[in-house]
């Protein structure tokens, strides 16, 4: 399956409303080609669509009437060979889930979510993968539990009242995403990594089939660690390849997508690569150079910042002339290097943060992290009485998340937090729009078996891509023969970077694109300030009006504040003006 949704009754004898089933079926996909498949029972309803990316629909109904549906592929660690399908894995897991046994998931390595329903017992389970990458949202309201792998489906469900969560929205505008299971809506949550939400007549409970905090640190010679990471990465690639001989992949000028393409070429896979960087940047130039070195068939489309990259990839691949000559074995599956810099490169952890955290200065280390990542609360746009509720909130919230890991080394706690939160939030838009772009990602750097080993390694040798750069020596020599775009201050490319090729961070969008973005922001801000659903109890409208005026006159650059205000306004509008404030 590609998208799943449904509703479970929480009480015996209380039937799922027919109107809710119809609304879920209607909202499951925006593509008229999709034919939803439904499972109906008075106490439970499931609906699903599949774009056919993995060649098997991944749903099962047994002789007793119990049903399982799954989006993505679990990749149980004992499989992964050619012909080893997700349907086979689902069959094995379904038999266990029917006995409330989730132990097999401990050895899953893939990106998936699933739902199980047993009508005889009136029991439903919602299941997340080990990193929580394949989003599954749920809401408990009245006698029912509603769920969907796309937030937009629950958003549109009239039977489920929505209320904007001001704390979550403040975290989104300050940190990039809400902490824990939060979403922009107070009543809708996201399943956490390794979480199973069980709906039974006696109540709704949450459990975990694996705890990342239970991983014990290891101390091995670096040469041995590099060899093991290389072995696990190759295993992650092969278990996702399923014997494909032709495929396609993103290729930037950085390292993560490069090593993915290198691994594909090492398996003799005919690889099409695509790049969507600004023209003339390191991201574009180095991608083309590496493709030529490794023998990939490369295409580049100079692209301004801001689009849905998955949609751009889908459109480019569909129009590719090369595709007509030699189709990919699975044309809806694309490879990406997502996650390498966080998991292997430790990109967000600096020596200064390490020193402060290990000296016991948690607040100082967290504040340094927030400062280095330019994350801060935008309290000026909030009403003063609302802003006061968030004094010190970012530091306190992140500290709570880190301490929940129960790690002797606070640096390891930060590392675990980053890998269990950033990835699943970063991929939200891809899965939210998958019915439109119709591409499944292959994410070898997010292989759970690989991530488990990386979590056990000491952080210090990995800082600033140190371990990563030495790990590259195990790949084909072409990986090191082309410059790469390194993060500022991190281990540089051994091949000198030409002075006249700028990096992506210092290259602005074209004047025409900047003008379009400015006009769009101006129009949306005007509409927000005039909207009757403006959250006047949360946002400080007089301050926003002054910011807007100063920005338009060029007196000050308040685009960041206006964009943040638009986030609050968007969800207040979707909630018909309803919102919930944190206690304070």
Annotation keywords:
6-stranded antiparallel β-sheet, 19 strands, alpha/beta
Question: What would your notes on this structure say?
Answer:
- The protein is an alpha/beta fold.
- Helix content is 39%, strand content 16%.
- It contains 22 helices and 19 strands.
- The strands form four sheets. A six-stranded antiparallel sheet has the order 2-3-1-9-8-11.
- It starts with a strand and ends with a strand.
- Mean pLDDT is 94; it is low at 79-83.
Intertermini distance: 43 Å
- Main β-sheet: number of strands, strand sense, barrel status? 6 strands, antiparallel
The gyration radius over C-alpha positions equals: 24 Å
The share of residues in extended strands comes to 15-25%
- Overall average pLDDT: 94
- Order of strands in the sheet with the most strands? 2-3-1-9-8-11
By DSSP (H or I, 4+ residues per run), the number of helices equals 22
Share of helix, binned:
25-40%
- SSE class: alpha/beta
Let me know the number of strands. 19
Low-confidence stretches: 79-83
Indicate the overall shape.
globular
């Amino acid at each position: 399956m590609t998208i799943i949704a449904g509703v479970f009754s929480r009480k015996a004898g209380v039937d799922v409303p027919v109107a809710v089933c119809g609304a879920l079926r209607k909202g499951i996909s925006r593509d008229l080609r999709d034919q939803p498949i439904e499972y109906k029972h008075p106490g439970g309803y499931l609906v699903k669509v599949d774009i056919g990316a993995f060649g098997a629909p991944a749903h099962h109904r047994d002789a007793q009437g119990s049903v399982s549906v799954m989006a993505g592929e679990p990749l149980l660690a004992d499989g992964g060979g050619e012909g080893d399908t997700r349907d086979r894995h689902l069959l094995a897991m379904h038999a266990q889930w029917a006995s409330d046994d989730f132990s097999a998931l401990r050895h899953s390595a893939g990106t998936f979510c699933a739902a199980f329903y047993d009508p005889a017992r009136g029991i439903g389970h919602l299941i997340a993968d080990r990193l929580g990458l394949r989003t599954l949202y749920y809401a408990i309201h009245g006698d029912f539990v509603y769920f969907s792998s796309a937030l937009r489906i629950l958003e549109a469900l009239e039977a489920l009242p929505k209320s904007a969560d001001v704390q979550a929205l403040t975290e989104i505008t300050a940190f990039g995403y809400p902490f824990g299971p939060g979403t922009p809506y107070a009543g809708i949550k996201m399943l956490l990594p390794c979480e199973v939400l069980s709906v039974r007549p006696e109540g709704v409970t949450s459990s975990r089939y694996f705890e990342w905090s239970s991983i014990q640190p290891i101390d091995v010679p670096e040469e041995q660690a590099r060899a093991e990471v290389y072995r696990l990465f190759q295993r992650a690639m092969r278990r996702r390849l399923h014997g494909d001989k032709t495929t396609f992949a993103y290729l930037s000028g950085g390292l993560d997508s490069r090593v993915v393409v290198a691994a594909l070429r090492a398996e003799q896979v005919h690889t099409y690569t695509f790049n969507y960087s600004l023209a003339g940047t390191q991201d574009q130039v180095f991608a083309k150079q590496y493709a030529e070195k490794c023998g990939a068939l490369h295409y580049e489309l100079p692209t301004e910042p801001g689009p849905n990259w998955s949609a751009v990839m889908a459109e480019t691949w569909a129009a590719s002339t090369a595709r007509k000559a030699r189709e990919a074995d699975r044309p809806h599956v694309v490879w990406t290097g997502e996650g390498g810099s966080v998991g292997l490169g430790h990109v967000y952890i600096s020596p200064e943060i390490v020193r402060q955290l290990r000296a016991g200065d948690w607040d100082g280390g967290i504040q340094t992290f927030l400062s280095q990542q330019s994350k801060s609360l935008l309290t000026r746009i909030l009403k003063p009485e609302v802003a006061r509720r968030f004094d010190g909130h970012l530091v306190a919230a992140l500290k709570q998340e880190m301490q929940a890991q129960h790690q002797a080394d606070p640096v390891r706690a930060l590392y675990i937090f980053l890998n269990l939160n950033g990835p699943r939030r970063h991929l939200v838009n891809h899965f939210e729009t998958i019915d439109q772009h119709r591409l499944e990602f292959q994410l070898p750097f997010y292989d759970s078996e690989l991530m488990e080993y990386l979590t056990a390694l000491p952080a210090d040798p990995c800082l600033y891509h140190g371990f990563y750069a030495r790990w590259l020596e195990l790949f084909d020599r072409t990986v090191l023969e082309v410059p790469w775009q390194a993060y500022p201050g991190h281990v540089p490319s051994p091949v000198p970077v030409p002075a006249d090729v700028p990096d992506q961070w210092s290259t602005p969008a074209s004047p025409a694109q900047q003008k379009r973005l400015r006009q769009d922001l101006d129009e949306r801000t005007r509409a927000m300030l005039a909207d009757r659903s403006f959250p006047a109890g949360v946002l400080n409208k007089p301050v926003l009006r002054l910011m807007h005026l100063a920005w338009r006159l060029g007196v000050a650059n308040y685009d960041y504040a206006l964009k943040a205000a638009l986030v609050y306004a968007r969800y207040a509008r979707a909630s018909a003006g309803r919102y919930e404030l944190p206690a304070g």
